[in-house]
Design a protein that fits this description.
This protein has one domain (about 65-195, about 240-405). The chain contains 3 helices and 25 strands. The protein has helices at about 200-205, 235-240, 345-350; strands at about 1-15, 25-35, 40, 45, 50-55, 65-80, 85-100, 115-135, 140-155, 160-170, 175-180, 185-190, 195, 205-210, 210, 220-225, 240-245, 250-260, 260-270, 275-280, 325-330, 330-340, 355-370, 390, 400-405. It is globular, with a radius of gyration of 28 Å. InterPro entries: Beta-barrel_TonB, Beta-barrel_TonB_sf, TonB-dep_rcpt-like. Its main location: membrane. This is TonB-dependent receptor SusC. Keywords: Cell outer membrane, Membrane, Receptor, TonB box, Transmembrane, Transport.
Length: about 400
């Protein structure tokens, strides 16, 4: 048995800047028509085409590593002849000069430059509990872990203390990822909704000072909440925090057992307290299949109070960024199952084999979730895409056979 207390402090740098961010790059093979000329398809009109180069990216001569300072405190303990193990950790991390793309107006004509523009704080707790025991020829082990994580943007580094990302204006969605000082980073940003207009009387009665709040709405359209009570649904004061892709809790469970050469191992994983922004349900892609929930859309009075009617024109903007996209992303998944059998040594030694084990492995066998999209375990690589489901192909369920042979 043992008991250990751990404490650590460290300061690290993140050099994931990329090449030549500090200097201006030029792109060749550019052309422009002067003198009123232009090109329609392959037909050249009047004018003289000039060849040249153009800036490929906006430089940032002041870019540097981001710095993070982390403190950890915890303990590891083993009891009952090392059968029971317990671990607990608390950590706090402060990141200065975060490497982020700095948003630019569209008229600049260049992609956003990377800069050291933010300070963020993370803190959390990790807990692990395990048990192993041998009973005659039977061995088994159970191990569980759970982590709780919170983050907060301390300083974004611009004048307003806020910025929006992932602006899908062409899709009729608008910006739906936002960062703001003092808030969890990042979070989903959009309108609150209050059901669906069931008839024209409901549309006509949704007014402010005698004027319709949604003048383009029709029965079956979404009723958006006028948060600032100014009688107009707009970005200025009606969009707000509607969810977050970062989970509060992540957890895992491992079960293992073996008996007379037969072994079984299972691994479960999951998250809780996170949302998914189901971007795949955007309304600007008509030539595609829809999930089965579209069958529950509004198609007459009292047929649906949540999913709006289907319409090509969409004058009400039913599918602009709102809480209609935000769904509970919590899940638990049986990630891996492996069943194996090791042949008795008295058999294998006859053919000069020290160990021969056959096994079958299944991955992504079962998933328990309320999320109705393809896969709740969406990509979380880029900071401005955490929890966004773009309808990519889900993780496949695989079953494989194999053998381990030791000569």
């Amino acid at each position: 048995d043992s008991f250990k207390v751990r404490f650590s402090w460290g300061k690290n740098g993140n050099e994931n800047i990329g090449n030549f961010r500090y200097t201006s790059l030029m792109s060749g093979n550019q052309n422009y028509y002067f003198g009123g000329g232009y090109v329609v398809a392959t037909e050249s009109k009047e004018g003289i085409m000039q060849y040249g180069t153009s800036p490929a990216a906006i430089p940032n001569p002041n870019i540097k590593w981001e710095e993070s300072e982390q403190t950890d405190f915890g303990f590891d303990a083993r009891f009952l002849n090392n059968s029971l193990n317990v671990g607990l950790d608390y950590f706090k991390k402060k990141t200065n000069g975060m490497l982020m793309d700095r948003p630019l107006p569209g008229y600049v004509g260049q992609s956003a430059p990377m800069a050291n523009v933010g300070d963020m704080e993370n803190w959390g707790v990790e807990f692990e509990l395990g048990w192993r025991q041998r009973i005659s020829d039977f061995n088994y082990n159970v191990s569980a872990n759970v982590s709780y994580l919170q983050n907060k943007l301390i300083e974004l580094g611009n004048a307003t203390g806020e910025a929006t990302y992932e602006n899908a204006g062409a899709a009729g969605v608008g910006s739906f990822i936002k960062a703001m000082n003092g808030e969890v980073w990042p979070y989903f940003y959009g309108y609150k909704t209050d059901g669906v207009f069931q008839n024209q009387a409901e549309v006509d009665s949704y007014v402010k000072d005698g004027k319709k709040i949604q003048p383009n709405a029709q029965p079956g359209d979404v009723r958006f909440v006028d948060l600032n009570d100014d009688g107009v649904i707009d970005d200025g004061g009606d969009k707000t925090k509607i969810g977050k892709g970062m989970p509060d809790w992540t957890y895992g469970l491992t079960l293992g057992a073996d008996w007379k050469g037969l072994d079984l191992n299972l691994f479960f994983q999951g998250t809780a307290g996170n949302d998914v922004f189901d971007f795949s349900q955007r309304g600007d892609i008509p030539a595609m299949n829809r999930p089965k929930w579209i069958l529950d859309r509004w198609h007459g009075e009292d047929t649906s109070s949540k999913i709006p009617r289907m319409t090509a024109a969409n004058p009400n903007g039913n599918w602009k960024s709102s809480d209609l996209y935000v769904k509970d992303g919590s899940y638990i998944r049986l990630k891996t199952v492996q069943l194996g059998y090791t042949l008795p040594a008295v058999w294998t030694k006859k053919v000069s084999v020290q160990k021969f084990r056959l096994f079958v492995t299944a991955e992504n066998l079962l998933t328990f979730t309320e999320y109705d999209g393809f896969d709740p375990e969406v990509a979380t690589g880029d900071y401005n895409r955490i929890g966004v489901d773009r309808g990519v192909y889900p993780q496949s369920r695989t079953i494989s056979l194999g053998a381990n042979i030791t000569f």
